[in-house]
Write a structure and sequence with these properties.
single chain; mainly alpha; 6 helices; disordered C terminus
Length: about 180
């Protein structure tokens, strides 16, 4: 069943792209890759959000990632936020990754370990944005050059603690299910 829905989604994307390019070739509508690219990202995000609403938890992170990227590039390429033109895309990608971890946490609050990379990536992304806009250059430069190593250590420690905690929980679950099987008739 999943294979049929994936084929349907890919078919719709090909039709959309082909139809857009055909309209461009016929000079009916002027499309360019920078105008079409964000729409494709947002279309992919909508498809992934639909999958996540239907219970596919793994789609939540990617849906958020492509939503943030698509929204940013849509607003930038259609001159809604022309004053925020960035030559470097890394702040957007880092911020999108952080947002995807945060939304994954919102869908599963028991996985608190997702908050560590979420806040770290969002903080670094915002600092890169501020640096690209020449806002608080001295503070962001100091932070990025001196404190980022400490944040990496904290991030790694949090991930290790989360992994160890998950392993203990899995062992407790498998141990308790073995006890139940052994005491059965």
């Amino acid at each position: 069943m999943k294979n049929k829905s994936n084929t349907l989604i890919i078919g719709v994307i090909f039709i959309f792209v082909g139809f857009s390019l055909l309209l461009d070739r016929l000079n009916a509508v002027q499309f360019s890759w920078d105008k079409l690219f964000p729409i494709l990202l947002l279309l992919l995000a909508v498809i992934l959000w639909a999958k996540s609403i239907n219970g596919n938890y793994n789609s939540v992170g990617w849906a958020t990632f492509f939503s943030v990227l698509g929204a940013f590039y849509f607003l930038r390429n259609y001159d809604v936020i022309e004053h925020l033109w960035f030559s470097d895309v890394w702040p957007v990608v880092i911020l999108a990754m952080g947002m995807s971890f945060l939304v994954k946490y919102a869908f599963r609050p028991a996985e608190w370990g997702l908050l560590i990379p979420a806040f770290f990536l969002i903080l670094v992304g915002v600092l890169f944005f501020l640096d690209d806009m020449n806002i608080t250059y001295e503070y962001t430069h100091y932070f990025l050059s001196n404190i980022w190593a400490l944040l990496l250590v904290i991030l790694g420690g949090g991930l290790i603690i989360s992994a160890l905690r998950r392993r203990v929980q899995d062992e407790n679950k498998s141990g308790s299910s073995t006890d139940i099987k052994e005491t059965g008739p």
